[in-house]
Amino acid sequence: MFTLPDLPYEYNALELVISEEIMRLHHTKHHQAYVDKLNAAVSQVPELTGRSIIELMKSLDQVPESVRTAIRNQGGGHYNHSLFWTIMTPDGTEGPAGKLQEDIVAKYGSFDEFVAQFNQKALTLFGSGWVWLTPDLEILAQPNQDNPLMQGGEEPLMGLDVWEHAYYLDYKNKRDDYIQNWWKLVNWSVIEQRYGK
Questions:
Q1: CA-to-CA distance for 195 and 185, rounded, in angstroms?
Q2: Is residue 15 part of a domain?
Q3: For the chain, how many structural domains are there in total?
Q4: Domain range holding 108?
């Protein structure tokens, strides 16, 4: 059975950018619903029991068709949010350091240009979805609860949730303000560790 992970901070810890109300709704309602529906789908196919969320995401083509869409949507929601909570912190830093910083600058010319391209992907993603930074430092926008694992990729370094439930109570229709402010929360030390692996 999959379970809702605890947040690594209090619900009000990110209020500089994301309100306590949104964090509570996002974690205890939206993410919990993904977990509950994922468990319901997995319970219909006994051979899926015991597989990790990463195994499920990487082998969707082997999941029985009767539950594949549910596993994709609900499992994606669970995986994506579980990562999202860990790459934010109330003590966000200005940017990465060490090899990650060097490699981002080598690829994009500057950290600011990387942020600009990431923001553009997030702003122009139609409807709901996520924007990811992959281990090879590509910026990838995907719809709904899709993630790079589903296309045979590796675990992403970080992802930004641009579903309206992630920001609408605070920012209304101003997705661009949410995206710009979100960088103040990014936990680069966690992302650097993920890159080091």
A1: 18
A2: no
A3: 2
A4: 98-196
Q: Helix (H, G, I), strand (E, B), or coil: what is residue 1?
A: coil
Is the residue at 1 inside a domain?
no
Q: Please indicate, yes or no, whether residues 25 and 69 belong to a single structural domain of this protein.
A: yes
Supply φ then ψ for residue 120, to 5 degrees: -65, -40
Each residue's pLDDT tens digit, 122-147: 999 999 999 999 999 999 999 999 99
Contact 70, 39 (CB under 8 A): no
Verify that 78 and 133 share a domain, yes or no.
no
pTM for the structure as a whole? 0.97
Q: Are 84 and 161 in contact (CB under 8 A)?
A: yes
Query: Tell me: the pLDDT tens digits for 10-39?
Result: 999 999 999 999 999 999 999 999 999 999
User: Of 84, 118, 114, 119, nearest to 100 (Cα)?
Assistant: 114
| Statement to judge: residues 102 and 180 lie in one domain | yes
What number of other Cβ atoms are within 10 A of residue 128's Cβ?
14
Q: What angle do CA 181, 21, 53 make, to 5 degrees?
A: 80
